[in-house]
Amino acid sequence: MPTAMITGASRGLGAAIAAALAPTHTLFLAGRPSAELDAVAEQFGATTWPMDFGDPDAIEAVVEPIDELDVLIHNAGVAYPATVPESTVDEWRATLAVNVIGPVALTLPLLPALRAVGGHVVFVNSGAGINASPGLASYTASKFALRGFADSLRNDEPSLRVTSVHPGRIATEMQESLIAYEGREYTPEKFLSPETVAKVIADAVNAPRDAHIHEIIVRPR
């Protein structure tokens, strides 16, 4: 089966993507070591690839054994709810490290493995990567930057398929924290389910190879 590496797969959307791709792909689950990540790996017969986006210099050595990779899905992300005047430099630094520098640090050493099979790189972005979201200053900036990286990768690596996925709000722990920051009641039914977004991503990954889906925008009904 083709291979797919997924970051941030220990829970939420990442675990849902793993479930959606497990029937068609051999899964590599990348992220910080945890019991949650091990549990997802055991459920789907996947392997874990320990890495910390806070230490990007160590990532290349972790993925060095991979010589072919069909799909790379950048799903890991963090958000620190704050307006610009509320935000801190440390929050900006942490957000950009995980949401931008991490994907760059993982993609670059995997380019030969992706080129070898004409692979597919999927960036789980956000509606905030298209229109600035109030109260999410550093997160918005990071998602605009991630979109720029995806567009540049698509331009510079014509043998690869590169897709940016921009979902609306998803019913995850991150969303629950954001709703609490906004002082509202969290009602999961109002948001996209992780399984819905995961299916959209899996459909893009499994699209015929002559189809290059550049961008997907998904919003709750």
From TrEMBL:
GO terms for cellular component: membrane. Belongs to the short-chain dehydrogenases/reductases (SDR) family. Residues 2-173 form the Ketoreductase domain. SUPFAM superfamilies: NAD(P)-binding Rossmann-fold domains. It comes from Mycolicibacterium moriokaense. InterPro entries: KR_dom, NAD(P)-bd_dom_sf, Sc_DH/Rdtase_CS, SDR_fam. Gene3D superfamilies: NAD(P)-binding Rossmann-like Domain. Keywords: Oxidoreductase. The keyword Oxidoreductase applies. GO terms for molecular function: oxidoreductase activity. PROSITE patterns: ADH_SHORT. This is Short chain dehydrogenase.
